[in-house]
Design the sequence.
């Protein structure tokens, strides 16, 4: 992995070698000591605040639809079990989160005591990258960090997904579900 690049993972907190029943997408800024930001109001922020997290399991799934399952807190990802990926992976990391900086709306953590486990890497398509970015934006909107002005950016990301996966019914179905989540968010504002 290259320094200075964000890598998207699904984060699952662990305690005493067992997964806790929570998951969410998490961007890690890779470097000598990887960093990540957690916004107030997220479940992981609350778990870290209560000091319930011994380690974080960060995994890059073979099926990027798992990012969507993690944002929905799907039981397929969150059943308790050993601190190992719940599904097939291309890479997973176990690290100990350590606070580096406290901000008004978030905390920056360092990933310490890193263990890296490699699986069978597959190419990561532009469509999946755009889907992950779309989910990140919607999550930030739900957390109140971004406002509705980002809807034109979501339109661009939708175009990116449609253009990059023109024959994928599975991707189209997920995109429709995600866009409905965004429309629900617009109406609730």
Sequence:
């Amino acid at each position: 992995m290259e320094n200075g690049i964000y890598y998207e993972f699904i984060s699952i907190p662990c305690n005493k070698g067992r997964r806790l029943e929570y998951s969410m997408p998490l961007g890690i800024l890779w470097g000598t000591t990887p960093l990540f930001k957690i916004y107030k109001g997220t479940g992981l922020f609350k778990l870290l605040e209560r000091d319930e997290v011994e380690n974080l399991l960060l995994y890059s799934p073979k099926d990027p639809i798992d990012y969507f399952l993690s944002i929905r807190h799907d039981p397929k990802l969150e059943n308790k079990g050993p601190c190992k990926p719940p599904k097939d992976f291309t890479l997973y990391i176990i690290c100990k989160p350590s606070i580096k900086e406290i901000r008004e709306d978030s905390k920056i953590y360092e990933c310490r005591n890193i263990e890296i486990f490699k699986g069978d890497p597959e190419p990561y398509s532009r469509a999946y990258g755009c889907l992950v970015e779309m989910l990140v934006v919607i999550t930030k909107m739900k957390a109140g960090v971004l406002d509705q002005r980002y809807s034109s950016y979501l339109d661009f990301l939708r175009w990116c997904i449609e253009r990059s996966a023109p024959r994928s019914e599975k991707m189209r179905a997920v995109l429709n579900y995600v866009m409905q989540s965004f429309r629900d968010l617009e109406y609730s504002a």
